[in-house]
């Protein structure tokens, strides 16, 4: 016997002893395991082994069974009889294995050891059934797998040398690394003999669990883990890649367990669903199905392989949901109308699992939201012109109500959010109020702007925190407005008045709204609004500089004098009239004009009298009152410093106020009884036409008021009406301009387009500001053809070309 064979026997004795102790759960020290690893490694590095490898390589051209027998004879008496019998057994089962190269003997010693161990263990479990057998199997598997993993690491040298040579160089596909070989032994000796009993027992336990009984699910998990870990087929063993290690696969798990599991699951739920739906309400059935789906998903997570989920759930969905989808959808619609969002969420969870099953519910949500919105506005349509707040609050109430349903009942899924948004857009832009208004859908934009004006003005009694919330709500409504250019026009006009009249409750709130409008519609949309704010800030610093300049130069100016210098193209005010300032104001204004033109050469100042104001004090009354008046009112009242009475015609000539404005201004002074006329009886019914040119007007020296400071600066209705008309006209003009610009921009880029393609490309460019009408686009196309920006094809009248 050679020294190598002696060392082999010593190594095998240590290996087999270590394995027995591990299988019996006896502890091994680290030192013992390290010695075992080192001995195996030393065996494969020995000089005798190297000589044998060389001799085997030169003497043996192939690895047939005959050549093995000749080589074994050549070894002669170097091998003892026990080793010869072990090799003979292995060679009968594993043809073409090169056992002469050291490693072969150790490999088959190990393989026979595992075979004997598994045969014994299998016999020990023959009398066990059901859970007892699963416990036995699970414990055996856990120990066996652990020991084999440890031994695989210990036999690293053999894996990397002899086994690799057999598979890669000699193309012997019946040889595996130690761990894979141990899994093969498990399959062939233990698993295949017990798999039917294992699977049936696991399936029985799963059925018990579904029926509400408590089971030891860890037993099922251990069994199924062994199916996966030891799961490779004969075909996979004989792979063509010559890999030393065979990767575990799911084929054994699928073949011996999963197929039967899914089949029995289908049978179970088919029977249960038929019985349950006959004996219970559809709502209870929905809850039951949701509960069952959760249980099955948890079951996969707990002890099945994750890949089972994608095969199992569609089968269950088909049986439990698809077969009853019509009734489930009907119930969901009922739940929507009674707003039971908790139950609706559960029903939605089932419906959303089935393709296209959401569409009828989404359509019903859109119709229900739309009709509810129409009804809400119909209920308050009589008050909206006086109370824009009621209109906006009705919109927001419907929005908040159905937004909650979408969020809670439909998990805020995009399809439902789109249906909800469509409904809001429809009822906000088309309802009883907009249909009754000349401006149509623009009425919603107008009322929203007026509500903003109320909210942002002084005296609104809104707390700071609540203001932020309300501004957020305003933006919610704004996002649904189609005519955003109409909102821009009305909001800009009202903001201008608040800034000029210094009636804003909070600059922070004003700037917050502008910021949000900028975020929603871009810089261009809010640029004029931002410019207004900038002008007011600049004017504040400008008037301070002017007053300091006058003080340094010793110039006297009117107490409380202030000026706002406004950029003409940013502010929505009419062009100034020919009215001249009262003589008392002229010197101070001249000084400011001189100061400003020196500071900003080339700029021109024009007074906007309609938005100018001042204060006058009555010296003829006790107590002395302060009258807050417009510049026009001031001009009329200051005339009576020099005369006691004047005819209407002479007041008009002296004040130089525009005829269309003069009588409305005078009417306010007469109604407030600051002025009087012996031929006029003051009442609410007093009209401008009641004031005749020859009527004599004088100061009412008996004027009395409970307030010391009296505001007479009221808006002139005629001016407001004209401004509204001008705004409507400007909106139409701007829309025409925007449409033409979009057409030219598109045609310049495309060079040639047919009518339908042109319309399709233009509309998206405009919808951020307004919803363009097709007729308006057609008119703009014709206008651009007249202006020679476009031409129509001579043969095809629907085809247009850009003219450079």
UniProtKB/TrEMBL annotation:
N-terminal signal peptide: none
InterPro entries: Cullin, Cullin-like_AB, Cullin_homology, Cullin_homology_sf, Cullin_N, Cullin_neddylation_domain, Cullin_repeat-like_dom_sf, WH-like_DNA-bd_sf
GO molecular function: ubiquitin protein ligase binding
Highest taxon of source: Eukaryota
Disordered: annotated segments: 55-96
One Pfam family per UniProt: Cullin
Gene3D superfamilies linked: Cullin Repeats, Cullin, Chain C, Domain 2, Winged helix-like DNA-binding domain superfamily/Winged helix DNA-binding domain
Keyword hit for Lyase: no
Sequence ranges assigned to domain Cullin family profile in this UniProt record: 443-670
Biased composition (Basic and acidic residues): 67-96
Compositionally biased intervals (Polar residues): 56-66
A GO CC annotation given for this chain: SCF ubiquitin ligase complex
Claim: Ubl conjugation is one of the keywords in the record: yes
A single GO BP: ubiquitin-dependent protein catabolic process
Keywords: Isopeptide bond, Ubl conjugation, Ubl conjugation pathway
Pathway this chain belongs to: Protein modification; protein ubiquitination
Entry similarity comment: Belongs to the cullin family.
Protein name: Cullin family profile domain-containing protein
């Amino acid at each position: 016997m050679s020294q190598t064979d002696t060392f082999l026997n010593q190594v095998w004795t240590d290996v087999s002893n270590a394995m027995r102790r591990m299988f019996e759960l006896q502890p091994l020290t680290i030192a013992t395991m390290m010695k075992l690893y080192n001995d195996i490694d030393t065996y494969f590095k020995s000089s005798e082994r190297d000589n044998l490898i060389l001799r085997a390589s030169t003497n043996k051209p192939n690895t047939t069974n005959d050549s093995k027998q000749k080589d074994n004879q050549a070894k002669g008496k170097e091998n003892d009889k026990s080793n010869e019998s072990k090799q003979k057994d292995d060679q009968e089962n594993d043809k073409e294995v090169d056992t002469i190269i050291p490693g072969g003997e150790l490999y088959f010693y190990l393989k026979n050891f595992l075979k004997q161990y598994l045969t014994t263990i299998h016999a020990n479990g023959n009398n066990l059934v059901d859970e007892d057998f699963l416990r036995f199997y699970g414990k055996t598997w856990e120990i066996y797998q652990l020991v084999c993993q440890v031994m695989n690491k210990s036999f690293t040298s053999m894996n990397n040398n002899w086994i690799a040579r057999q598979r890669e160089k000699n193309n012997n596909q019946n040889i595996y690394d130690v761990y894979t070989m141990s899994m093969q032994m498990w399959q062939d000796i233990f698993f295949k003999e017990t798999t039917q009993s294992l699977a049936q027992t696991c399936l029985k336990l799963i059925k018990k669990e579904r029926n509400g009984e408590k089971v030891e699910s860890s037993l099922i998990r251990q069994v199924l883990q062994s199916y996966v870990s030891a799961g490779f087929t004969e075909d996979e063993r004989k792979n063509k890649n010559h890999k030393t290690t065979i990767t575990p696969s799911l084929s054994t798990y699928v073949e011996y367990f999963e197929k039967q599991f899914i089949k029995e699951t289908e049978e179970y739920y088919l029977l249960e669903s038929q019985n349950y739906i006959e004996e219970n309400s559809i709502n209870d059935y929905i809850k039951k199905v949701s509960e069952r789906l959760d249980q099955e998903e948890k079951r996969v997570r707990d002890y099945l392989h994750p890949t089972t989920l994608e095969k199992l759930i569609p089968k269950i969905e088909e049986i439990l949901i698809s077969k009853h989808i019509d009734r489930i959808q009907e119930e969901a619609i009922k739940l929507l109308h009674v707003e039971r969002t908790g139950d609706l969420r559960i029903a939605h969870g089932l419906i959303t699992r089935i393709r296209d099953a959401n569409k009828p519910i989404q359509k019903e949500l859109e119709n229900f939201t739309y009709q509810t919105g129409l009804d809400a506005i119909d209920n308050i349509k009589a008050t909206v012109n006086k109370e824009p707040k009621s209109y906006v609050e009705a919109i927001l109430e419907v929005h908040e109500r159905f937004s909650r349903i979408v969020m809670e009942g439909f998990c805020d899924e995009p399809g439902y959010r789109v249906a909800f948004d469509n409904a809001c857009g429809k009822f906000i832009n088309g309802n009883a109020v907009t249909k009754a208004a000349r401006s149509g859908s623009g009425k919603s934009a107008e009322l929203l702007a007026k509500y903003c004006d109320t909210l942002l003005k002084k005296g609104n009694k809104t707390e700071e925190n609540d203001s932020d919330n309300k501004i957020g709500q305003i933006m919610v409504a704004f996002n649904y407005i189609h005519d955003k250019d109409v909102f821009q026009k009305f909001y800009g006009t009202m903001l201008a008045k608040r800034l000029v009249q210094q009636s804003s409750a909070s600059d922070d709130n004003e700037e917050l709204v502008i910021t949000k409008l900028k975020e929603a519609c871009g810089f261009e949309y809010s640029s004029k609004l931002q410019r207004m704010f900038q002008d007011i800030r600049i004017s504040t610093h400008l008037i301070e500089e002017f007053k300091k300049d006058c003080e340094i130069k010793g110039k006297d100016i009117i107490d409380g004098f202030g000026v706002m210098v406004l950029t003409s193209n940013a502010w929505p005010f009419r062009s100034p009239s020919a009215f001249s300032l009262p003589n008392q104001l002229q010197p101070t204004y001249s000084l400011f004009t001189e100061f400003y033109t020196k500071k900003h050469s080339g700029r021109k100042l024009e007074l906007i009298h309609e938005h100018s104001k001042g204060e006058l004090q009555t010296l003829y009354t006790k107590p002395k009152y302060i009258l807050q008046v417009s510049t026009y009112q001031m001009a009329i009242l200051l005339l009576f410093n020099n005369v006691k009475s004047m005819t209407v015609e002479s007041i008009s000539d002296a004040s130089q106020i525009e005829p269309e404005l003069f009588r409305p201004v005078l009417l306010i002074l007469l109604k407030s009884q600051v002025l009087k006329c012996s031929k006029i009886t003051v009442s609410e019914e007093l009209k401008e036409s009641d004031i005749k040119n020859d009527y004599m007007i004088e100061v009412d020296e008996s004027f009395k008021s409970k307030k010391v400071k009296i505001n007479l600066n009221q808006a002139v209705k005629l001016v407001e009406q004209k401004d509204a008309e001008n705004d409507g006209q400007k909106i139409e003009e701007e829309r025409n301009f925007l449409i033409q610009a979009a057409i030219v921009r598109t045609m310049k880029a495309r060079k040639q387009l047919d009518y339908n393609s042109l319309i399709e490309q233009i509309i998206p460019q405009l919808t951020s500001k307004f919803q363009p009408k097709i007729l308006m686009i057609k008119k703009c196309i014709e206008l651009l053809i007249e202006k020679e920006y476009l031409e129509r094809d001579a043969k095809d009248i629907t085809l247009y070309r850009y003219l450079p």
